[in-house]
Each structure stands twice: as structure tokens, then as C-alpha cells.
């Protein structure tokens, strides 16, 4: 049994208070409010939220970067945590939860509530906060940085900002409020080919730029998919994609405090599972996406998540014979290697 290091609450009483920096960001202040609310539900205690200028005591929960956190844990490199990484640590009888900006401390509080208090936020209206007369903690020293930059979940009822933040979703359907740290924004959520190859500009003179497979002919009411084997169409897509990246870079240079939207790279197409159709249309999309990336690797290396090579491609194969049940072992291995969960994985913490 893990020996108790600190007692946050006992019999409806607590000697603890929550300490945040005088210049704490809005997400850190939200983290303090959320933690206070969870402790009130779990143990019938209402903790004070205090500034670091108050006299230090042994019974403190310190949230977010600041002088008090640096004094207790000078080894924590907040910048190295990125925008969402966090550290949860007990220092004597104090509890320290520190994360990067903007969402790290908030995610650290939610992770603490889930992993150490047993909280769950299943839906907007269905939550579980276990009641505990005595709330004790053992020694904690956890550091976590989400391996996936973008986590999204599309389902009716999951677009509530608080639910998304509590479950570590930060994508298109997630929180966009300053109080909850915003979200990871992209130039285009999806279906971006239309804005890179506009039908109203090109279809009349160049219908060959657009798909003729899905409808048997090129028609104006089905223009979203470009003809991926047309070199001129690929060149236009590449040029327009370069302009988008250059615009984003100008936004960052003109105002460093305003992060530019991150381009939703066509490279994402390289991470699809094995294509089941023998016509390999998906393979053509992959090839077109790769070719559009090639010219910009040199000038905009920092805007591409990583170089793309032949190892990134999955084999494009026709469907297996009907008598074979399920994918082959090679396909299973490929899918396990490529398909990643959308929610924050609970890996081994360091």
C-alpha cells in the first residue's frame, strides 16, 4: 500500500488552499476553479484561491508557472512542456501542478482529477466525482506531454467546450474560449481541395482538372475532388498551398503574440489505412499530396511536421478474396502502426 504523503480533506475540512500566480493566465484561473469545484463535490470542502504574495504554508496546491512553483521545483522547464504538457508532483505536503501555455496546467488538473480522484466526464450531463470522506494522496511525480498535437471527436453532443477540455480534445469541435485555452486551429478543417483548386475559377476552361471517376463524367455539381493525375492541377494546388503557408508565416512575424492558424497539410492523407478499392483512387490522392509537398520542403521545412519518404506509405492493395476472413497479418501490423487514437492516450508516465 502506498504511504499517504498528504491529506487534502478529512471529514469536510481541509487545511489546503490553491495558489496561483498574480499574473496567471485565464486557463490557469479556470484550472483553479475546476479543481476547487471537484474537491467541493468529492469531499465537501471549499478551498480558497490565493495569490503567491500570501505567506507560504505547508498545505498548498500550487497551480501553473510562477515564482512559487519555480522555488519548489526549479528543475521543471515549463517551455519544454510545450502547449499542453504538464507535471504533477508532491513536494513535501504540497501538491504542484504546472503545465505549458496555454492548456498544460488545465490538462494537468483534469488528469489529476481523473487519475487520482477517479473523476469521469462521460457526457455534458453525466459525470462521476467519487465521494470521499478522507482524501489522501501518496507521493506523485508525473510528467506527461500528449504525443498527438491534434485530437478531435465528431459526434452529436460532444461539442461542448467544457466536456472537450475535460477529455483532452483540442480540435475543430473543441473549446474555442480563452478561459479554456482555445484549440488547435488549422487553415482548413478538411475537404480543402476546393479552396486550393476553385471550381469557379477553373472548371469552365479546364474541366480536365477535376474528377471524372465518381460520376462517370466531369460535372459541375461534383467538383470537390481534383483529377490527381493532372500535372497542371497539381501545380495549382502546390502554388496555392505555398501562398497559404507564406500568409501564416507573415501573421506570426507581424504579431508574435497572435499564433497563426496551422495549415491542415495534405500530408495527412499519407496516414490513411490500406485502400480497399482496386482502382486505387486513394493512392492517386496520396501521390498528389506527396507531390504538392515536395516543392515546399526546402522553403518551409518548419511548417511540415516531418519529411515524407517511402516508409510513410501503406501498401495499396486490392481487396482480399471473399473466402479470406479479415485482413492479413501484414495489414494488421500496418494498421496498428498507423492508426492512432483521437483522445489523449494514457501511456506510461515518466
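Sequence proposed for the structure above (350 residues):
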Amino acid at each position: 500500500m502506498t504511504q499517504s504523503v498528504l491529506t487534502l480533506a478529512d471529514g469536510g475540512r481541509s487545511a489546503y488552499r490553491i495558489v496561483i500566480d498574480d499574473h496567471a493566465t485565464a486557463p490557469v484561473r479556470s484550472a483553479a476553479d475546476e479543481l476547487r469545484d471537484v474537491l467541493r463535490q468529492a469531499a465537501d470542502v471549499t478551498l480558497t484561491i490565493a495569490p503567491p504574495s500570501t505567506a507560504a504554508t505547508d498545505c498548498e496546491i500550487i497551480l501553473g508557472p510562477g515564482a512559487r512553483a519555480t522555488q519548489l521545483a526549479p528543475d521543471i522547464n515549463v517551455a519544454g512542456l510545450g502547449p499542453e504538457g504538464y507535471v504533477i508532483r508532491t513536494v513535501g505536503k504540497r501538491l504542484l501542478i504546472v503545465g505549458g501555455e496555454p492548456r498544460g496546467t488545465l490538462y494537468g488538473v483534469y488528469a489529476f482529477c481523473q487519475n487520482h480522484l477517479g473523476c469521469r466526464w462521460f457526457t455534458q450531463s453525466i459525470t462521476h466525482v467519487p465521494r470521499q470522506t478522507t482524501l489522501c494522496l501518496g507521493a506523485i511525480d508525473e510528467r506527461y506531454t500528449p504525443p498527438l498535437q491534434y485530437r478531435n471527436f465528431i459526434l452529436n453532443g460532444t461539442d461542448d467546450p467544457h466536456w472537450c477540455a475535460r477529455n483532452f480534445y483540442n480540435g475543430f469541435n473543441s473549446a474555442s474560449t480563452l478561459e479554456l485555452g482555445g484549440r488547435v486551429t488549422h487553415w482548413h478543417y478538411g475537404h480543402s481541395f476546393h479552396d486550393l483548386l476553385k471550381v469557379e475559377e477553373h472548371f469552365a476552361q479546364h474541366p480536365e482538372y477535376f474528377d471524372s471517376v465518381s460520376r462517370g463524367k466531369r460535372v459541375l455539381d461534383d467538383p470537390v475532388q481534383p483529377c490527381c493525375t493532372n500535372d497542371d492541377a497539381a501545380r495549382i494546388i502546390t502554388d496555392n498551398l505555398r501562398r497559404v503557408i507564406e500568409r501564416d508565416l507573415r501573421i506570426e512575424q507581424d504579431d508574435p503574440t497572435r499564433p497563426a492558424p496551422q495549415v491542415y497539410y495534405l500530408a495527412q492523407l499519407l496516414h490513411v489505412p490500406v485502400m480497399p478499392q482496386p482502382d486505387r483512387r486513394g493512392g492517386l490522392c496520396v501521390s498528389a499530396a506527396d507531390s504538392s509537398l515536395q516543392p515546399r520542403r526546402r522553403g518551409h521545412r518548419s511548417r511540415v511536421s516531418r519529411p515524407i519518404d517511402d516508409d510513410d506509405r501503406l501498401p495499396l492493395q486490392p481487396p482480399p478474396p471473399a473466402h479470406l476472413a479479415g485482413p492479413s497479418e501484414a495489414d494488421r501490423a500496418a494498421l496498428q502502426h498507423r492508426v492512432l487514437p483521437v483522445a489523449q492516450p494514457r501511456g506510461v508516465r515518466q
